[in-house]
């Protein structure tokens, strides 16, 4: 007799060894990882995995886990995947002593929902390796701990492993998460391969390992803002994006947002994807309008869209390098170009070499990793050269923070500026999101209606719209465009069919907007207008959450962009100001060892305590980053933090004294060049 959902959660690791499960060949599985462990290390990996289970099971499981390690490069413990369907249930369906813990359980299940997750069988949400847990035993234990937790305990999670419940207080976070926090000298790509295979660390990406992923919607808004503002940079005032071309690549968990964002911006979007399953999934979900797999058909369809000034998104099943090259040959002008393949993970499925099928490339990756790397770098050189051909004709190309330029430079591609230090193309944060959004405090605020009721989400949209319109009426000229873009977004959100999985929404808002929207939500919960609690959160890709020299902090020019103080202060500061859970990760969208990023979640239950927490925490969560950006002498951030100090007397921030550039010349003997 099978147990019901609540009983299975409360059971955790089963009392008796469950039957071995059949491998689900139809699922979108993670690629086989590199065979990097020595014989002794493989034995250690088995020993590490078996410690989750009683000794009586070890003989049977040892062979099974060894087979998994050989076949997949990791031990996922498929046998222990729960029998129940994985999705975000209404919060009342979770067995929990703490409402905050139930909210976290809901968010974990949403991250692993097959409609949301990229490789759900392997507990990977997006980005090819962005994991919620390393294996199914960790999931079972974590859910059981959350069900048992009181309001005076905190669960500490080490890279997916639930270390345990510790006494704390009602004011403390209910969960503290770390992912991939390596000693710096052990933070190279092969270190991730090795220590993840050993079962001692994992790559949490950004919102995967911190339980805050809401499907591609999470990046649609930021991508829409980026594309709209990129067109504003290249078009004349009397032009609009209709019939103008945006070419990019990637239809996975995060990159799958690009076609929808292009539609919102009103342009033609062509997005190449080598994995047919990923492209078809996005088409079925309504995130891309049309699928094509023939190059000549793509050329013909693109020319028609340009001629008729369409707003349409086209997914090309194939390698984007061939699209760049073919469009050069066919003299198709590309207005905007970018790339959002998972180049933070170039040797394990994040980027595929041209002239190989998807299946051939996967075989090459696992059987001949050195040759695979060689072919990927050849493709990056071709990719960059094709982009250079188009930019010479006037295309505006920007790096979308996926480490494309970084990996292309490492491959020897022609993408360096004349000074041989900088890239010849900007990061989108340098040109767009940094000065236009992050420096002013605008970033990806998000919320989830835990009732699971779409009507609650509609009500939150209405509430957020009303708040934004009130703020805009008195906002200074410097942020009027940001306010208007966000009002347009929230007005059209439901019609754009953005929900995948949980009833969630994202909205770029500053500290004032976040706090006022959250307070209005809390009041609506208290009055019964909204039927259940709301979980607040954000992407780590935000004003304060992330130190990433090639993306989020790429527009920091005082030499501090390679430091990670801001992200660390962010997660510590949020933890004692009222967050329900906090997370800090090594790695993210630009790669292992290239970024440190922190996140949070906060449950609103309509209480006065929640009202106090949200004001305290959301204020710090944003203004910590504005302060750092203002100290770096960013003009927009200086405006924003001075405005905030004028409104908030208790805020005292150290401001920079600006230096005349002419003063610096002639101070040292400068070599003649």
From TrEMBL:
Its cofactor is NAD(+). NAD(+) binds at residues 127-128, 205, 273, 400, 589. Residues 86-212 form the Urocanase N-terminal domain. Binds 1 NAD(+) per subunit. Its EC number is 4.2.1.49. InterPro entries: Urocanase, Urocanase-like, Urocanase_C, Urocanase_central_sf, Urocanase_CS, Urocanase_N, Urocanase_Rossmann-like, Urocanase_sf. One of its GO terms (molecular function) is urocanate hydratase activity. GO terms for biological process: L-histidine catabolic process to glutamate and formamide; L-histidine catabolic process to glutamate and formate. The keyword Cytoplasm applies. Residues 215-432 form the Urocanase Rossmann-like domain. Residues 438-642 form the Urocanase C-terminal domain. It comes from the Bacteria. It catalyses: 4-imidazolone-5-propanoate = trans-urocanate + H2O. It is an enzyme of class 4 (lyase). Keywords: Cytoplasm, Histidine metabolism, Lyase, NAD. Pfam families: Urocanase, Urocanase_C, Urocanase_N. GO terms for cellular component: cytoplasm. Coiled coil: none annotated. It is found in: Cytoplasm. Pathway: Amino-acid degradation; L-histidine degradation into L-glutamate; N-formimidoyl-L-glutamate from L-histidine: step 2/3. Belongs to the urocanase family. Catalyzes the conversion of urocanate to 4-imidazolone-5-propionate. This is Urocanate hydratase. The lineage of its organism: Bacteria, Pseudomonadati, Bacteroidota, Flavobacteriia, Flavobacteriales. The gene is hutU.
């Amino acid at each position: 007799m099978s147990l019901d959902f609540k009983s299975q959660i409360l059971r955790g690791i089963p009392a008796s060894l469950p039957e071995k499960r059949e491998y689900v060949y139809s699922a979108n599985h993670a690629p086989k990882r590199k065979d990097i462990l020595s014989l002794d290390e493989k034995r250690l990996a088995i020993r590490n995995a078996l410690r989750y289970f009683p000794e009586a099971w070890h003989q049977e499981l040892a062979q099974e886990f060894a087979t998994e390690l050989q076949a997949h490069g990791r031990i996922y413990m498929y046998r222990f995947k729960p029998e129940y369907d994985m999705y975000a249930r209404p919060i009342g369906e979770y067995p929990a002593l703490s409402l905050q813990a139930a909210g976290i359980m809901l968010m974990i299940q949403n991250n692993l929902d097959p409609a949301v997750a990229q490789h759900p069988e392997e507990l990977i949400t997006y980005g090819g390796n962005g994991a919620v847990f390393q294996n199914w035993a960790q999931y079972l234990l974590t859910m059981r701990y959350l069900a048992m937790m009181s309001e005076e305990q905190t669960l500490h999670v080490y890279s997916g492993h639930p270390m345990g419940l510790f006494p704390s207080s009602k004011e403390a976070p209910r969960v503290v998460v770390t992912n991939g926090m390596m000693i710096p000298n052990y933070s190279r790509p092969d270190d991730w391969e090795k220590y993840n295979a050993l079962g001692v660390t994992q790559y949490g990406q950004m919102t995967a390992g911190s339980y805050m992923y809401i499907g591609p919607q999470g990046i649609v808004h930021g991508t829409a803002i980026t594309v709209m503002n990129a067109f504003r940079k290249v078009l004349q005032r009397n032009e609009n994006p209709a019939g103008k071309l945006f070419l990019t690549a990637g239809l996975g968990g995060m990159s799958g947002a690009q076609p929808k964002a292009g539609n919102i911006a009103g342009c033609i979007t062509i997005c190449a994807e080598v994995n047919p399953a990923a492209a078809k999934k996005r088409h079925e979900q309504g995130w891309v309008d049309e699928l094509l797999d023939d190059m000549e058909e793509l050329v013909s369809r693109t020319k028609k869209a340009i001629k008729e000034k369409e707003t349409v998104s086209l997914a090309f099943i194939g390698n984007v390098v061939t699209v760049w090259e073919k469009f050069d040959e066919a003299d198709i002008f590309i207005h905007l170009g970018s790339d959002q393949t998972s180049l933070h993970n170039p040797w394990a499925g994040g980027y595929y070499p041209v002239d190989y099928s998807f299946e051939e490339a996967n075989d090459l990756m696992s059987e001949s990793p050195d040759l695979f790397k060689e072919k990927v770098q050849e493709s990056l050189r071709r990719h960059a050269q094709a982009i250079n051909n188009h930019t010479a004709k006037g295309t505006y190309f920007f790096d979308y923070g996926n480490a494309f330029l970084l990996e292309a430079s490492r491959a020897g591609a022609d993408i360096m500026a004349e000074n041989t230090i900088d890239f010849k193309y900007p990061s989108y944060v340098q040109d767009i999101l940094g000065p236009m959004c992050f420096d002013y405090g605008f970033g990806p605020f998000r919320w989830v209606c835990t009732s699971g009721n779409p009507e609650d989400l509609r009500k939150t949209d209405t509430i957020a719209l009303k708040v934004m319109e009130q703020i805009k009426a008195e906002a200074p000229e410097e942020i009027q465009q940001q306010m208007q873009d966000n009002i347009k977004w929230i007005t059209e959100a439901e019609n754009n069919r953005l929900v995948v999985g949980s009833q969630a929404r994202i909205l770029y808002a500053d500290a004032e907007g976040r706090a006022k929207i959250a307070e209005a939500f809390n009041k609506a919960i208290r009055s019964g207008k909204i039927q259940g609690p709301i979980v607040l959160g954000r992407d780590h890709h935000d004003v304060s959450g992330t130190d990433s020299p090639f993306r989020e902090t790429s527009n920091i020019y005082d030499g501090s962009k390679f430091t990670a103080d801001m992200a660390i202060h962010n997660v510590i500061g949020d933890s004692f100001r009222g967050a329900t859970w906090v997370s800090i990760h090594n790695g993210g969208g630009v790669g292992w060892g290239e970024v440190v990023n922190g996140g949070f979640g906060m449950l609103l239950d309509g209480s006065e305590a929640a009202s106090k927490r949200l004001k305290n925490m959301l204020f710090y969560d944003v203004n910590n980053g504005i302060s750092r950006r203002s100290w770096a002498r960013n003009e927009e951030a200086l405006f924003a933090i001075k405005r905030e100090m004028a409104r908030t007397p208790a805020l005292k921030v150290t401001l920079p004294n600006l230096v005349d550039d002419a003063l610096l010349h002639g101070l040292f003997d400068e070599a003649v060049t």
